[in-house]
Amino acid sequence: MDDYLAQALEIARAQATVRTMTAEEITAFALKLSQAIKGLAEGADAAAEPTGPAIDPKSSIRQESIICLVCGRKSRMLTKAHLAKHGLTPAEYKAKYGLKPDVNLVCKTTLKQQRERMAKMQPLMRGKASS
Length: 131
Description:
Largest sheet: 2 strands, antiparallel
Radius of gyration: 19 Å
Distance between the termini: 74 Å
Oligomer: single chain
Number of helices: 5
Strand content: under 5%
Number of domains: 2
Strand order of the largest sheet: 1-2
């Protein structure tokens, strides 16, 4: 095993102790990190754009979380403010990672809760319109 991968695995191990990560996430994180360490050691541009997302874009939207394909951050939703930190709008993010334009950038549980709240509000709104 090369030194870059060993260093990356050490960092990935430490990262896994502070947040829950699947085996796929740990592997992708370690590989991406080892490439970045190797690039830095060989004098490559540290700000170079990564070759691609760490996980499959379609599997980034999960039941309890959504994973940002740019930085790997897990949250319940990807906000405009978070995407702006990466210099992207929601539409640009979806286009960049091949997601459909109508996909919601929220986890499945949050989306279900939002739809249930809207369904409860609909009868109230109809009743006010007829008054």
